[in-house]
Each structure stands twice: as C-alpha cells, then as structure tokens.
Specification:
The chain is an alpha/beta fold. The chain contains 15 helices and eleven strands. Strands 2-1-3-10-4 form a five-stranded mixed beta sheet, sandwiched between helices. A four-stranded mixed beta sheet has the order 8-5-9-11. Strand 1, helix 2 and strand 2 (59-64) form a beta-alpha-beta unit. The protein binds beta-D-glucopyranuronic acid (BDP). Beta-D-glucopyranuronic acid is lined by residues 33, 40, 72, 89-90, 145, 171, 192, 209-210, 213, 236.
C-alpha cells in the first residue's frame, strides 16, 4: 500500500511538471444539419482544424453536427443574433433572410457544374458572400451540393404530368414552393429532419434532394423512385455571425475567412466521392433510377419559366449576369 501511494505521489509530481496544454482563449460553435461523416460536416471540421492550427490553438471551433443545435432555419436565426457563431446551410433557407440568394438557385440556371463554380468563385460569388452583412451574417465560403432531383414513394416520374398532385416536401423556401407548384405537384415545406417519418407515414409522397442526402438520410428506404431531372443546383454556404466576427481582431477575422475558403477543395473532393458511393448504395438497395429524355427535360424547363418572369427585376438582372458567365 505504502509503495502504491509512493508511486502515486511520484506520478502526481511528474504530471504537474508537464507544460499545461494551452487552453483555447475562445471556443466558438458551428451548427451543421448533416451527420458526422457527411462531406459538408467534414468540410466544417477541416475549417475548424485550420482555424485552430493558424491561431496556435487560441480559437477553437466546435462542430455540432446532426442538427444538435436545431434544424437549419432555427440555427440561421441563432447565428443572426449571435447565439451560434457559425453554420453551414443550404442557400434555400438562407434566402428567407437574404432574398437576393434566390437568384443563385433558380431552376436550370447553370449550364453545368463548371458554370456554377465559375460564378461562385468569381466576382458574383464574392459579391453574394459580402452581401450578407446587413442581415447580420458574414458569408465565408461555398461548398458543393450537386444537383437536386425528385424522388417519391408512388411511381416513376418520366414527365411533368407524372408529378401531378404528388405531395412533395420542400425546404422552407418560397422559391422551392413555387417550383413544385409550377410542376403541378403540391409543395409541403418541412424541416429536413422530419422528412423520413413524413414519407414513411404518407404525410408526404415525395421530396427532392441530391444523391448524398437521399442516401445518408435513408429516404431511399421509404421513397424508391428517384428521377434524375436535376432541377436545381443549390450551393451550400458557410456563414458566420457578424456579432462574433466583430468581436475578433482583424487578423483573426482574416484567418477565419481564409480557413473557410481553404476548406473548400477538401469538401468538394469528398463530395465527388460520396456522390458516387451514394448512387451505388441506393441502386444496390433497390431504388428505381429514372433518366429523363431530352424532350422531358425541355418540358421541365418550360414549366419553370414563370419562376423567371415572376422574379423581381433586380434579381432578373443578376440572373442575366450569371447566364453571361462563360
Ligand atoms: C441538403 C442540404 C441541407 C438541406 C437539405 C434539405 O445539404 O443543408 O437542409 O438538403 O433539403 O442537400 O433541407
């Protein structure tokens, strides 16, 4: 016993002699709706890692994934009044706080993925990131989210007519409600986390999303008809609370901005890989994947034209600028 106590005493002295690990001066919180191994969450974690490394451990960003801080819209509100420091969200719900963002997510707006990245990484994207300050946010970076497609539990969608009357969940976004109505379906706005059980119980018959979200939420288990109509590309955005940013020195603000941008290639690479994995997994699990004919795509595009003419003139001008990016 004596010997044991002696060992303990020696250990205690040894431990107290070790240099204490520097405690962070500031711990900040980031809200994320997706699970831990989803590409956007891993992008958030890379952002946090870079900030910690570049501030020598002074600033630590804790990533609360799996909507631990709440559903997307509620977290955006908390970021707006500074209760949460950062969040990564889809620009669809963000547009309720900054309506100009609708111009960036119009249906069939981008010719392809390359076009979208040219816009986001160019002056238009930069202007959008900087436009959020009046709403009390600071736009930091864009993440990939692929293209969104319809899926449902009832039938294969091969044409616009097949969507008629289907109850389709949409994000909490006016534009997305209009989009689904324009196709003759019935839009039902609902938080992301409620979609699985709503599909299962038949409250809704379908939803729309990219391959990774369709797979990672297990929606494919309860809605097996997936149509590759690619109606929108809705970028993901990393935002900070302006209240948090204003508390930081100019140097730390710069580290945060740069770390967010530097985490983009990492997220985009993981996204590409996970898109493929998701497609393979849902196909193997028995999802029925429908490819649209060029005529059917043209029909989808035609049905959505009114959304363009209903857009405010100043947003129509932004849309034209986006279309002109070559
Ligand atoms: C996913 C986005 C997520 C959205 C979700 C949704 O990554 O941020 O909230 O769609 O449909 O693709 O609500």
């Amino acid at each position: 016993m004596k010997r044991f106590l002696l060992v303990l005493a020696v250990l205690a002295v040894a431990v107290s002699a070790l240099p204490a690990a520097a405690a962070p001066e500031m711990v900040l919180r980031l809200g994320e709706t997706h699970v831990a191994d989803y590409p956007t969450t891993k992008g958030d974690m890379e952002f946090a890692r870079l900030v910690e490394e570049r501030t020598g451990g002074r600033i630590k960003i804790e990533v609360y994934h799996s909507k631990q801080l709440g559903e997307e819209k509620a977290v955006i509100e908390q970021v707006q009044f500074g209760a949460v420091d950062f969040t990564r969200v889809s620009i669809s719900p963000l547009a309720a706080f900054a309506p100009a963002f609708d111009a960036l997510q119009m249906p069939y707006l981008y010719r392809d993925e390359e076009h979208m990245w040219k816009v986001l990484n160019g002056p238009i994207g930069e202007e959008f990131l900087n436009s959020l300050e009046p709403a009390n946010f600071v736009g930091l970076a864009w993440y990939d989210s692929g293209a969104r497609n319809f899926y449902n539990s009832k039938r294969e969608i091969k044409s616009v007519a097949d969507l008629k009357g289907l109850k389709i969940r949409v994000q909490e976004s006016k534009l997305m409600m209009g989009l689904v109505s324009a196709l003759g379906a019935v839009p039902t706005p609902m938080p992301f986390g409620e979609v699985y059980s709503a599909l299962q119980t038949g409250v809704i018959e379908g939803a729309e999303n990219n391959w990774p979200s369709y797979f990672s939420t297990s929606h494919y288990e309860v809605a097996k008809y997936f149509t590759l109509d690619g109606h929108t590309r809705v970028p993901e955005i990393l935002i900070a609370s302006k209240i948090t940013m204003d508390r930081l020195s100019k140097e730390d603000q710069e580290i945060i901005r740069k770390s967010a941008k530097d985490s983009m290639p990492f997220q985009i690479k993981l996204w590409k890989e996970f898109e493929k994995v998701s497609e393979e997994k849902v196909t193997a699990a028995g999802s029925i994947i429908t490819h649209l004919t060029p005529e059917a795509v043209a029909e989808f595009q035609k049905a959505m034209e009114p959304l363009y003419s209903e857009l405010k003139p100043e947003l129509q001008a932004v849309v034209r600028k986006i279309q002109e990016v070559k």
